[in-house]
Amino acid sequence: MSLWKNTLWNLVGTGLPFLVGIVAFPYLVRHIGVEAFGVLTLIWALIGYFGLFDLGLGRALTQQIAAGLASQDHSHIPHLAKSGLAFTAGTGLIGGLVLAALAFPLGHIWLKVSPHLQYDTFCSLLLAALGIPLTTVSTGLRGVLEAYEDFGAVNILRMALGAANFGLPMLSVALFGPSLHDIVALLIAARLLVLVLQWKLVYDKLPSGWTRSAIQKNDAKQLLSFGAWMTVSNVISPLMVNADRFIIAGVLGAGVVAYYTVPFEVLTRLLVVPAALTSALFPRLAVTMMTDRGAAKRMYERSTRLVALGLVPLCLCTAAGSYLGLSVWLGHDFATKSWLIVVVMSVGLLLNGIAYVPYAAIQAAGNAKTTAIFHVFECLIYMPLLFFLLHYFGIVGAAVAWVIRVGMDLGLLLGNIKKSLFKTVKGGAT
């Protein structure tokens, strides 16, 4: 399947749920209230963040199975797949236990939730803990499917889960009223169903009898050597992406979180274009890096230009129409408090979108250590900067801190590409 067809599948798979979210956000804000909706966005973030307990094995499975398929030596792929999936299940269970242990202090103390919402938040977090092992195993299964470049199946399921992520809360409110734990219970049931369907696809894709293959120590070591550094990125990067909303809740209260998270969620959904391209690009680059580094460089440069040219007009239009768009969508009061955040974040949207391509290229070459070190460095600067700007400039300051962080990330990635990854390769894009 062509790179562009895979990209189109990824774009549709990520973009369609976004359209459901456009309808769901104002409905939920009206029917459960701004504070409860803010808590729901935190739960969405927690389920995603605790997916880091896959230890980077989803991406490692994609990279190493794709390389194995390119080498025509498929004999170790069943062992590799089983080893990776077994580890994702075990680590997901650990992650679920961690979130369950944190549910009470999060719900009753740390998030500064209003007293009438505290018990509902606590119960919702306990239910969300059940979703962590489902998320980690699902990430591993998706990694296997992407190694085989089966982006059609991956994205049909992604569309279903994404639509459920936004659509089921509306259904829950309509059936059961404004109960957070009922919403989360339906979300977990949807993840379980998608996991079962992913398992069936992977079961049919891998050689017959792969589930009976032994877990090989060398395969586990090979996956974990890549995945260990991926884990550092998977811990630090989502922490930097999601920490702002938790810090806002802790400093200013959960009641204002939605004014920040709604623009953030909408704008980051616009990153579907670079995300779609780089998801398709990753297994192709992993193979091409081994066989033709010059072709890999040309593929990388074409992709970077395409992303930049697509995002510039999108970001300009988003910034220019921020107040009007929010007023029509969520009302004048919401727009008054959030439009400037959209303007600031539009700059970060451009920087972050371009960074997707060098990030994918560096990891496709097996250099997960490089991106992990960058993320640690960025976090050490970003966290104190976030507290400082939030304290003096409120939620707009949090948006400025995010833009500075993603700009720093892009600069480091481009510098590494130029000085290391393609340093000895002649010839640019054609």
Task: List SSEs in N-to-C order.
Answer: HHHHHHHHHHHHHH
Percent of residues in beta strands? Answer: under 5%
Q: What structural class do the secondary elements suggest?
A: mainly alpha
Tally of structural domains: 1
Question: How helix-rich are the residues, as a percent range?
Answer: over 70%
For the largest beta-sheet, the strand count, sense and barrel status come to: none
Mean pLDDT: 86
Question: Any idea what the radius of gyration is?
Answer: 21 Å
Low-confidence parts, pLDDT < 50 over ≥5 residues? none
In total, how many beta strands? Answer: 0
The first-to-last residue Cα distance is 22 Å
Count of helical regions: 14
Q: What does the overall shape look like?
A: globular
How are the secondary structure elements laid out?
Blueprint: H1 3-32, H2 34-49, H3 57-70, H4 77-110, H5 115-147, H6 151-176, H7 180-205, H8 217-252, H9 257-269, H10 272-291, H11 293-320, H12 322-330, H13 332-364, H14 368-421
Helix pairs in contact: 1-2, 1-6, 1-10, 2-5, 2-8, 2-9, 3-4, 3-5, 3-8, 3-10, 4-5, 4-8, 5-7, 6-7, 8-14, 9-13, 10-11, 10-13, 11-13, 12-13, 13-14
